[in-house]
Amino acid sequence: MMPTEAQQTHTSGGAADATPDAGTRVLHGQSYHVAIARALYEAQKLDAHAILAGPAAEIAHAGLLQVRDGGESACLGAAEEGFRAAGLGRLDLSETGPGGGTASLADSLVALGWRARHGRSAHPVCATAAGAIAGAMEAAFGRPFAVEEVECAAQGASVGRCRFRVRPAEEGFVPVEPRPREAAPRQPAAPPPPPGPGAEIAESLFPAPPGADEGGRIDGPGGRFARVRADYYPRVAQRFEREVPRAMGAKFANIPALLLTEAAHYHGFYGLGEVMRSAEWTVRARASLTTREELMHAAVALVNRLGWGVWHVHSLVPGEQAAVRVYESHEALAHRVLYGRAAAPRCFLARGTAAALMNLVFVGDLPGRPALTPSYYNQLFRSPLSFRAVETRCRAMDDPYCEFVINPLSASAGVRLREALG
Question: What does the alpha-carbon distance between residue 270 and residue 315 come to, in Å, rounded to a whole number?
Answer without folding.
Answer: 25
